[in-house]
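User: Here's a structure from my thesis project, written as structure tokens. My advisor, Dr. K., wants to see whether a designed sequence matches the one we expressed. Can you design one independently, without my sequence as a hint?
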């Protein structure tokens, strides 16, 4: 092979790897995080976990990607090791689908049907359709994702053909043939397969390279079989790297993958070559075909799953013995439980990462709501235990803001769909509002605590009025939390009229308090503290309004918060006016 042949080989390999990556990314974006959700929800049964591992890996065309996801699930506590072992076994079977697709390049014949099945016949058509869909589709749309998949597949096949054409002269090269013969040594072939796969971090890609070499007729089954065995071990490198810095259970998941492949390969090699010593398999001297490679790849992985599936619990124990628990392991798990699902490994799956971030954000909304409602409760039923619980909730809310804010900023640089991009903006806008609501809960409890320390109390009428206002604040918190969690843009428009009513109630309460103060029915000190509570109630409703506007913005690209809240616009909005008048009749001070 001359320098130009080497360049063609390298170029073909580059196109092959790029096409595989592009097609996989397109499939993942098209799934919109649904595949990951399926893995998360439906893996309680080990057999079901295995089948799901097969399905998901067949779709995203990468056992490494599936295993890395599993490591992330285990690290975040979403999945336990007993669930993970089934998915990992299934991933090994699912990855064989790629080799079957690539085996189509070996189809030849004069009949039209056979020629149509060869990728060289239909790949150009798929590439044309793909590029048209890619150019005409909107960013993040389903059409654009399908175009990406088709184009990725065409590039993958073109790269495969380029590699095959580049290595075809090697069938007459004695030096190359001699080198490939040396790889028929089981241990040497296994080592070569493991190292190649570890370098490119994809067993599907390394199997594809082997299939391309097979098309030149220079690779025998005696050479191909140990290389395929090594490829199954080399693919474990990706998961092992991913587990660095992760929890002990995540490391165990990576070791389960490693042990499964090592034990499966060892059993296969011992049994196969022991039988060969007596039976002398004649096919080993034959030239391997692309389809033959796919058959061997599939038979090995299916056989390994059948043999080792009953001993899945043993793999878990072996991994647990390898990575032992530390003294502070349980404590660490408890500390990180609330936000552990936001694993950075999922950032490569933006749609799924967005779902996890939204779930965490929903939980933050519930925490803020619980904090403010509990703080309001202390105004008429004060206990130190309730005050401490509000403090704990506020600190939890702060932690959510820190972790979520960092995670969302990392997500913002990813290739998100249009809907996910809008949702991300809503979450970023609402994050500080929910955090501030819990801050106001602290302010309220501080004020109420000061009242108790000074031995002060509100007048009976003032307390009754505050309780009535509290009903409106509770309702706006309930409404805001619900519309945020459900992305309910229809009822989000109901928040602003209620916020306006709360403003009116606060103003009326302040005026009534001044009259009571003048009449000597309330003390100046208690009045100042009441003023603080009212201000915090009003600010809470303001933050609810901000969240509602952010939710409404999901449906439009040009709506600005200050425009929506503009008094003139509200005055001309029929829904606002009707709802405002209705709520004024409901929320009245006694």
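Assistant: Designed independently from the structure alone:
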């Amino acid at each position: 092979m001359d320098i130009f042949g080497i360049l063609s080989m390298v170029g073909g390999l580059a196109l092959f790897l790029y096409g595989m990556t592009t097609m996989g990314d397109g499939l993942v974006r098209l799934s919109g995080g649904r595949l990951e959700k399926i893995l998360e929800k439906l893996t309680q049964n080990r057999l079901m976990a295995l089948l799901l591992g097969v399905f998901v890996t067949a779709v995203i065309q990468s056992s490494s990607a599936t295993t890395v996801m599993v490591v992330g699930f285990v690290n975040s506590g979403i999945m336990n090791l007993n669930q993970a072992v089934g998915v990992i076994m299934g991933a090994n079977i699912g990855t064989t689908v790629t080799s079957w697709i690539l085996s189509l390049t070996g189809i030849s014949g004069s009949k039209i049907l056979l020629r149509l099945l060869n990728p060289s016949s239909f790949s150009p058509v798929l590439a044309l359709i793909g590029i048209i869909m890619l150019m005409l589709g909107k960013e993040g749309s389903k059409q654009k994702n399908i175009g990406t998949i088709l184009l990725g597949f065409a590039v993958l096949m073109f790269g495969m053909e380029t590699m095959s054409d580049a290595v075809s002269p090697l069938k007459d090269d004695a030096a190359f043939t001699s080198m490939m013969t040396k790889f028929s040594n089981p241990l040497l072939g296994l080592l070569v397969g493991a190292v190649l796969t570890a370098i490119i971090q994809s067993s599907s890609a390394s199997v594809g390279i082997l299939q391309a070499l097979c098309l030149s007729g220079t690779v025998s089954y005696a050479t191909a079989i140990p290389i395929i065995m090594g490829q199954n071990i080399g693919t474990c490198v990706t998961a092992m790297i991913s587990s660095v810095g992760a929890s002990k259970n995540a490391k165990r998941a990576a070791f389960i993958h490693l042990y499964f492949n090592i034990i499966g390969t060892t059993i296969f090699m011992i049994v196969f070559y022991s039988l060969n010593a007596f039976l002398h398999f004649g096919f080993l001297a034959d030239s391997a075909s692309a389809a033959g490679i796919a058959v061997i790849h599939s038979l090995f992985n299916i056989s390994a799953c059948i043999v080792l599936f009953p001993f899945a619990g043993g793999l878990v124990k072996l991994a647990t013995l390898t990575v032992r628990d530390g003294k502070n392991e349980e404590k660490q798990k408890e500390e990180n439980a609330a936000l552990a699902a936001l694993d950075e490994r999922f950032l490569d799956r933006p749609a799924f990462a967005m779902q996890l971030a939204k779930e965490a954000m929903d939980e933050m909304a519930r925490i803020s709501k619980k904090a403010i409602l509990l703080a309001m409760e202390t105004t008429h039923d004060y206990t130190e235990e309730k005050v401490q619980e509000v403090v704990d909730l506020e600190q939890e809310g702060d932690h959510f803001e820190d972790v979520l804010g960092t995670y969302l900023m990392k997500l913002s640089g990813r290739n998100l769909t249009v809907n996910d991009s809008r949702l991300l903006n809503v979450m970023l806008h609402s994050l500080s509002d929910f955090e501030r609501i819990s801050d106001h809960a602290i302010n309220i409890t501080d004020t109420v605590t000061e009242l108790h320390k000074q031995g002060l109390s509100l007048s009976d009428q003032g307390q009754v009025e505050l309780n009535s206002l509290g009903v409106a604040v509770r309702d706006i918190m309930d409404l805001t939390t619900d519309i945020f969690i459900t992305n309910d843009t229809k009822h989000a428009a109901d928040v602003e009229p209620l916020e306006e009513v709360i403003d009116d109630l606060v103003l009326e309460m302040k005026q009534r308090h001044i009259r009571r103060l003048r009449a000597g029915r309330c003390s100046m000190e208690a009045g100042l503290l009441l003023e603080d509570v009212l201000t915090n109630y009003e600010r809470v409703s303001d933050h609810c309004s901000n969240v509602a506007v952010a939710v409404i913005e999901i449906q439009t690209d040009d709506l600005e918060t200050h425009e929506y809240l503009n008094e003139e616009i509200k005055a001309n909005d029929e829904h606002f006016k009707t709802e405002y008048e209705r709520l004024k009749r409901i929320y009245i001070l006694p």
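When you compare it with your expressed construct, this may help: The two ends are 94 Å apart (CA to CA).
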